[in-house]
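Input (structure):
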């Protein structure tokens, strides 16, 4: 492959250019005119698409990194080693773009460094901020061998490989903390969050669903990258991930059902409201239908079937996080929120930037090439 040759302008590349250009315009508008000019947010409804999608969804969708790293380096399922690097790359890009997204949503983004020196250990947001910062650092170190190998920096590469397992353990601990703590953010609004989504078990729900969607993202990304870069897809490995995803989704769905029943929220399903419709869509698309599909071996071992299931799980996950952050709070706020096109363009440009950086990492750094396992990770 000639890395110096300019890529041809295809339809999807033209779409990406348009998305990034519109995102650039919205970025300039946001940082020159403020949140009022660039968003539909208000004092009654201060958190919208940029928190609900860019942060809550972005962090969850990147969960495949810590999940696959733990599977390979801690639990010694070495057969999954071939797909660890792309999963870590996806996680690294996801968390990096979440950090960028926070700059858009903060009223005074130039104060984003304050948690470093202004400690408030009683605050869930403080804990999330520190965990995300530390885990982003861990992901950078976990992905650094790709860059070090590209530039043949052998000495630092040996150091990183020697500390791989401790890094993975720290990463798993940090991920467990902040994935669940994102749910804890909403425990302080029991009277404002709709009964469909408020639960004392929100931290557990956020963590378990993040593991499920992390596996779905690995399947999703593996399919797309195999098509885009003309690679062989690792179907035996992805089929096994589908089997694990079936168990995780089954546990998550049962937990949600028992929680709704124990709090008497199932009785609200008789009410023909927007919240009822969106809850049914969320559970059907993200849990019920995927569980039924994955229960069949023919689906798990079929590339198109498994890919379709992963898309459903990701869609249901996005619905859940947006239901918690937007739908569930809208009625009690007394305000109707619908994002402006500038908010949507920023979000789409961040997603587009993620695809672009992933492609560049594959093209120039060989992100799919699997290095030997560290000695401590071998059985």
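Output (sequence):
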């Amino acid at each position: 492959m000639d890395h110096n040759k300019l890529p041809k302008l295809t339809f999807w590349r033209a779409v990406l250019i348009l998305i990034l250009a519109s995102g650039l315009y919205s970025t300039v508008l946001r940082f020159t005119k403020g949140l009022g000019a660039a968003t539909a947010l208000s004092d009654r409804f201060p958190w919208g698409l940029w928190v609900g999608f860019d942060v809550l969804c972005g962090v969850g969708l990147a969960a495949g990194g810590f999940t696959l790293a733990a599977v390979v380096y801690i639990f010694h399922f070495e057969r999954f080693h071939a797909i660890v690097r792309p999963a870590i790359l996806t996680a690294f890009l996801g968390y990096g773009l979440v950090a960028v997204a926070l700059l858009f949503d903060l009223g005074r983004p130039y104060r984003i460094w304050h948690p470093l020196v202004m400690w408030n250990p009683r605050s869930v947001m403080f804990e999330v901020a520190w965990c995300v910062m530390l885990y982003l650092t861990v992901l950078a170190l976990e992905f650094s061998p790709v860059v070090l190998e590209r530039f043949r920096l052998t000495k630092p590469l040996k150091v990183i490989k020697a500390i791989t397992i401790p890094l993975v353990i720290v990463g798993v601990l940090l991920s467990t903390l902040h994935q669940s703590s994102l749910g804890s953010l909403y425990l302080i609004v029991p009277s404002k969050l709709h009964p469909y989504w408020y639960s004392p078990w929100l931290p557990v729900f956020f963590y378990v669903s993040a593991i499920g969607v992390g596996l779905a993202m690995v399947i999703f990304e593996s399919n797309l990258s195999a098509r885009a870069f003309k690679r062989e897809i690792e179907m035996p490995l992805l089929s096994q991930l589908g089997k694990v995803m079936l168990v995780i989704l089954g546990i998550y769905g049962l937990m949600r059902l028992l929680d709704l029943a124990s709090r008497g929220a199932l009785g609200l399903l008789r009410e023909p409201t927007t919240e009822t419709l969106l809850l049914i869509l969320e559970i059907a698309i993200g849990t019920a239908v995927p569980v039924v599909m994955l229960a069949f071996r023919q689906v798990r071992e079929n590339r198109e079937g498994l890919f379709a299931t992963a898309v459903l799980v990701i869609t249901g996950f996005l619905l859940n996080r947006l239901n918690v952050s937007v739908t569930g709070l809208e009625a009690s706020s007394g305000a109707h929120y619908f994002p402006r096109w500038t908010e949507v363009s920023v979000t789409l440009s961040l997603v587009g930037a993620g695809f672009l950086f992933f492609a560049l990492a594959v093209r120039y750094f060989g992100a799919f090439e699997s290095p030997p396992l560290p000695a401590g990770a071998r059985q």
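Notes: Residues 303-333 form the longest helix (31 residues). The CA atoms of residues 269 and 307 lie 31 Å apart.
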